[in-house]
Design brief:
The chain is extended. Strand 1 (2-10) and strand 2 (13-20) form a beta hairpin. Helix content is 48%, strand content 21%. The chain has helices at 22-36, 52-59, 65-83, 136-149, 201-205, 253-259, 265-298, 306-328, 333-340, 344-371, 378-392, 396-402, 405-423, 432-444, and strands spanning 2-10, 13-20, 93-100, 104-112, 118-119, 126-127, 152-155, 166-175, 178-191, 213-219, 233-247, 300-301, 426-427. Strands 7, 8, 9, 10 and 11 form a five-stranded antiparallel sheet that branches. A four-stranded antiparallel sheet has the order 1-2-4-3. Strands 5-12 form a two-stranded antiparallel ribbon. The termini are far apart.
Length: 445
């Protein structure tokens, strides 16, 4: 291989031209022939016995060139990258310029290179850390949540339905006196006030008694998901079949005994307060670290190739698909998009701002690792891979065979950079952000 030229064509773009000698091309063609000859069929010869020269005479001397060049190119490009300290972030685009048996081949590769990064601030970053004070109201909310879990539903027969009740209904919807698709339900459970149905529907059930048959008059919202019904008035012929209401236990020592290991409500409240304090401190730490890394991103300059942002968006969407499967079983992303009326382009646009921020943060941390000469020893790498394998409950050799080990080493370098930036950050509650955070906290409480 011989490097013919190396030209920077744009920011993060290089075009390298290299040659493949006639000897290397010939050796590759022979390897291709040996690999393919078992499948070559020519009348008068058994498969695997057709001479190479005969094949080239029948189909042209260049019959094996394409596969031969494709066999050589990856190694040639890797040599160029290694010898010239070039780091690329995407698969090269390669064009075959010329190829002959006598002169070999000339190829042109377009490379998208890792962006140049500058970081002006990464040690001693100031950020606020405001710990939200736990109030009695916060404790009351936790108690109420626990109390709700102890609620039981009792049947109501001596009064009309009220907002907050759970009712069971039959209904069928009509638009212009014609029943419409999806507008019918039988023995349908509905909590009045949940907002599950079209605005105004649930309120018209309140005041009705078991056995009542009545019309519910509503108008579909203009922004309703199904355009066939958007903005149209509808009548739901409805029958109230049953009413149940929620009965909650008293907030007292007996409740504390039922829902915890404590004998008194006071003890339960004190335990809840301790846990809320720990949560508030953890949340403050997370907000502090987020602010630190926001500052790091703001202090970072780089022209980021779109391919990096697109790759991170792809990862985000893949993670979202996994969440859908975990939460909703067999719900596929395509089905989710149909249900929400969203296109894939809109979903990608939604993820793009955060993806760009995450890409820039990663580049910043890699630069910090370079500036601080952060290294990961072979022993540390081995230990990290073993921990990863243990988490996955697979042998470490299984992991090594399936992930790029050097990429994992880079991830470990980045994690060390994360710890360095965090450990050198400074808590500063005199910053304007701290006052704003405190005001927000006070309002929320």
């Amino acid at each position: 291989m011989s490097l013919v030229s190396d030209v920077k064509t744009d920011v993060n773009m290089r075009e390298v031209t290299f040659s493949i000698s006639a000897e290397d091309l010939e050796n590759a063609c022979e390897r291709v022939y040996q690999r393919q000859k078992k499948d070559i069929a020519v009348k008068g010869f058994r498969k695997g016995k057709v001479p190479r020269k005969l094949v080239e005479k029948m189909y042209g001397e260049d019959v094996f060139f394409e596969d031969a060049v494709n066999m050589i190119i990856p190694g040639e490009i890797q040599t160029i990258l290694d010898e010239n300290n070039i780091v690329i972030i995407d698969r090269p685009s390669v064009e075959l310029v010329s190829c002959t048996k006598a002169e070999g081949a000339v190829c042109k590769a377009t490379l998208i290179t890792k962006p140049e990064v500058t970081v002006s601030e990464y040690k001693g970053i100031h950020a606020p850390m405001v710990v939200h004070e736990v109030s009695e109201e916060d404790i009351d909310q936790q108690i109420e949540t626990l109390r709700q879990r102890q609620a039981r539903m009792i049947e109501v027969t001596d009064r009309a339905a009220e907002m907050g009740d759970e009712v069971k209904i039959n209904f069928e919807g009509f638009i212009d006196d014609v029943a419409f698709e999806g507008g019918k339900g039988e023995e349908y459970p509905l909590r009045l006030g949940s907002g599950q149905f079209i605005p105004g529907f649930e309120e018209q059930i309140a005041g009705k008694n078991i056995g009542d048959q009545f019309d519910v008059n509503v108008t579909f919202p203009e922004e309703y998901g199904d355009e066939r019904y958007a903005g149209k008035p509808a009548i739901f012929k409805t029958e109230l079949l049953g009413i149940t209401k929620q009965e909650l236990p008293e907030v007292d020592d007996e409740l504390a005994k039922d829902i915890s290991e404590f004998d008194t409500l006071a003890e339960l409240r004190e335990d809840i307060k301790k846990r809320l304090v720990v949560t508030a401190e953890n949340q403050a730490q997370v907000r502090f670290e987020n602010a630190v890394f926001d500052t790091l991103v703001a202090a970072t300059e780089a022209v980021v190739p779109q391919v990096l942002n697109d790759r991170r968006i792809d990862q985000r969407i893949s993670e979202f698909e996994t969440q859908l499967r975990q939460q909703y079983g067999e719900l596929k992303l395509e089905e989710y998009l149909q249900l929400t009326g969203m296109t894939m382009e809109q979903l990608r646009d939604e993820y793009e701002p955060q993806a760009k921020k995450e890409v820039m943060l990663r580049l910043a941390l890699e630069k910090v690792a370079d500036l601080e000469d952060i290294q990961v020893s072979d022993e540390e790498l081995e230990e990290g891979l073993k921990e990863f394998a243990d988490q996955m409950k697979v042998p470490v050799e299984f992991v090594k065979a399936r992930i790029p080990v050097e990429d994992y080493r880079t991830d470990m370098r980045v994690q060390k950079a994360v710890e360095l930036v965090k450990n050198n950050a400074v808590v500063d509650n005199d910053m304007p952000e701290a006052a704003e955070d405190a005001e927000t906290t006070e309002t929320a409480e």
